[in-house]
Amino acid sequence: MDEFQTAEEASFLVDEVSSIIKEAIESAIGGNAYQHSKVNQWTTSVVEQTLSQLTKLGKPFKYIVTCVIMQKNGAGLHTASSCFWDNSSDGTCTVRWENKTMYCIVSAFGLAI
Amino acid sequence: MGELGPDEGAENTYSLRPGLQHRFKSSTVKECIHAILKEKLANVQYIPEEMPELTKSLSEIIKDRLKEEGFDRYKMVVQVVIGEQRGEGVNMAARCFWDADTDSCAHDVFMNDSLFCVVAAFGCFYY
Description:
Chain A is about 30% helix and about 35% strand.
């Protein structure tokens, strides 16, 4: 009668999300060198692409995706996040990517409805 | 016949949406974050060994402060980014897939001579 979702359909699968993020980064900034004029467009496209792929999964989640792109010049960068949620249903995935001229850090958070 | 029992006539009390007073208000949260950053990072220099601890503790402190603010039934995510000031270019973006009516975010940036700090706080209502 009532269709309940299986455990897999309603959970945040880190590997799946991680591969979605990697694909989005590769396609948006794959072979590019850091360019100040384009970086705004790049962060936007990485984030939007990741979000649209996540929503296509069709899971009952609210998503938050953040992306930081930083030029490589020897400076240090640290990120940390703290979450107040339900550990059994919610999850996060962070991907660090770099090439010769820049670092890209994408974090995706999924909160169950 | 047809009596509801001891709670006869009781109203539904489970609210499906937050009232105006209980919304995750961007402005309130931004003020909280601003005050904490000003207090904790006022004279801090960028020291590579200390930064990981500082970033983690800052995100915990901000999350605990937001919990105290009393946003009932809100799940919260706080992200802190600290970087050294060396003239590099940085760009940060965020997109969310949520219920725009109930959910919201706030962010603040703190800069001094040796470091910059960006904090983004997101609040999602739990139905």
